[in-house]
Amino acid sequence: MGTFFRKRRNLIEYGTKMGVCDLRIGYNDNLYFGGHIGYRIFPEYRGNHYAGKACLLLFQLARKHNMEYLYITCNPDNYASKKTCEYAGGKLLEIAELPEGNYMRDDCEFEKCIYKFTL
Fold it and tell me: Under 8 Å CB-to-CB from 10, ≥6 apart: which residues?
């Protein structure tokens, strides 16, 4: 399966925390379904492309770690995250069923949209 290293960042503008994002560095089977980048924008700051802009910055960090591509995933009904992936230039590879035993099934998640980003 392999290991990965995660870097977490707070999204801050003018001293105000607007959300969080993280980059998971490395490659393994779990990251195909869970994604290399995760983000959460607080409700009052949504609609300003902050997640997409954070992804673009994290792409630069991933390049510094010699990563050639990244996956970002989201639930099929998460339209905001789908738009974020499109904004950041992702290519939808598939809507994949999560494998039996995948930890995300514990949260009643069964499918993921898998977007690939070539760096």
Answer: 17, 19, 20
